């Protein structure tokens, strides 16, 4: 059975813990400009470039992370994000730099000159959840192999 979509790509859904709902609203709503959907005192839905992410309150989370080496960088695991167009990626990178974001991996180009060359950046939300936003000069490089 193939996992390739038989129809146009659909939005994904991801639910994850945060230590504080107000911090999550400030980070996802204000900084990343994700429109807010439904909410409760213990969770908030956001639209992350058309995908549904849901922050769930976990007052006991500790924010520990694992790091794995990728192309000479230490990448936080787990992480999530969106593959953007290059202009949207650059606009987000510029906005985050202007807001003095503390990057895990600052905006850079990975795999330069190789299959899968990509612009990428990693940063964490206030709860320690790692996010990666990336872009390709051409979307056909998303799953490119050497």
TrEMBL record:
PROSITE patterns: VOC (PS51819). Residues 10-136 form the VOC domain. Signal peptide: none annotated. It holds the Pfam family Glyoxalase. Gene3D superfamilies: 2,3-Dihydroxybiphenyl 1,2-Dioxygenase, domain 1. PANTHER family: PTHR39434, VOC DOMAIN-CONTAINING PROTEIN. This is VOC family protein.
């Amino acid at each position: 059975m193939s996992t390739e979509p038989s129809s146009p790509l659909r939005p994904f859904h991801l639910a994850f813990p945060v230590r504080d709902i107000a911090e999550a609203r400030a980070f996802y709503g204000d900084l990343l400009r994700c429109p807010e959907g439904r909410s409760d005192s213990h969770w908030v839905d956001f639209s992350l470039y058309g995908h549904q992410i849901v922050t769930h309150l976990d007052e006991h989370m500790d924010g520990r992370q694992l790091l794995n080496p990728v192309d000479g960088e230490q990448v936080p695991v787990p992480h999530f994000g969106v593959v953007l167009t290059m202009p949207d990626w650059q606009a987000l990178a510029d906005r985050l730099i202007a807001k003095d974001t503390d990057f895990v991996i600052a905006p850079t180009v990975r795999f330069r000159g190789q299959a899968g060359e990509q612009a990428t950046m990693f940063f964490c939300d206030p709860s320690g959840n790692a996010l990666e936003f990336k872009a390709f000069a051409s979307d056909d490089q998303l799953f490119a192999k050497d």
